[in-house]
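Quality-control log, excerpt.
Job 1 of 2 completed; input and output follow.
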Amino acid sequence: MQIHHIAIICSDYEVSKKFYTEVLGLNIIREVYREERQSYKLDLAIGDHYVIELFSFPNPPKRPSQPESCGLRHLAFSVESVENKRDELIQKDLNCEEIRIDEFTDRKFFFTTDPDNLPLEFYEN
């Protein structure tokens, strides 16, 4: 078994679309508007690997990220260099936490958030 994709409902579709494609650099596979649901669905990939469905819906309720609540805790991306990725995101005006070391794997990682305050982790390969 493998994870097929992760679905994210955003509060502002255009802002999130720009964030995931222009800031994080994910590739658009397809974008459709579903009239009956008043909803956009954007399929995104890292390279050729399908990873995220980004949805818009009219007036979705906010989901708390802080303090941590039940449900999906965060979305993690694997990167070659957390220093380089952190510098790149800071240059794109994202607030990034300091780099930390995973006490169990000794790997570097840091967190930032998407436009809806969903925690995003960048973890070194």
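Job 2 of 2 completed; input and output follow.
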Amino acid sequence: MTADVSRGPSQDIETPLHLLRRFGIEVLVADQQSAVVEMSMPLAGMRNPFTGQPTIAPLGLLADAVSGMSNHFRHQGDEWTVTTELTVELSPEGCGMATAHGAPPVVAAGRPLGPRDAGSSLSVYTLSCDGVVIGGGTVRSYFLQPETVDLSEPAETLNRHEHTTLAELMAVEPMPATDDVRVLRQHADPFLNNAVGIVNGGIASAGLELAASAAVNTGDVPMRTASVRVNFLRPFPAGETSRYEATPLRVGRGTAVADAQAIGDDGRPALVARITAYR
């Protein structure tokens, strides 16, 4: 998640700076020696394109950026990092506080959790809003040496306006429901790719949450996401058929669980996720 432009990782190959700018993410602390990282991102006004309800889906991007960079700061030599697991946990009031009208940006603070081993590193982060801790989670990263890395900044592909939606920021489009399955198209947008040419892991995590949340929000009283767990299986290329698919496992009176997967343009599942939501 970060890179050394001269010889390896000082710039983040997974969450490049232009992607942070698109989503209004500000880097507050990035201490390479301690591997402590803090960033902020506004959530107020962001809506799920399926339901029109406030959404915490972009926290997947914030978590990936913060804890991914913390992991990356522990690289050696020409190593880079890619995310292999990501979790988000929110307190009962966390969703409401973070997405309320006029709410201040959510601040994520990440740091290493235990020593790195030969191939991977784990970091933990907390989420706070208006000085109140509302959640946290972990990100596990794997160290590797990719053959091709493109650190150039692509031209902006989005024509921003006063009412730009989350769906526009993410280049996604909800498709008609089929039975219980919710499908969210992921259009190709080079601005959303990481430096190895695939959809950024935080963007994909957000897409999974949007689809899964829609799968359990079929009633009149909204279900608020409380936990998200994502596993990264393989690269997620975007194209004509790339999409997120989600199905509910159980929707009860007060809680619900749904599974989702990101399917690349090659037709293979690239990421899988499970969310839990509560009324």
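Post-run check on job 2. The radius of gyration is 17 Å.
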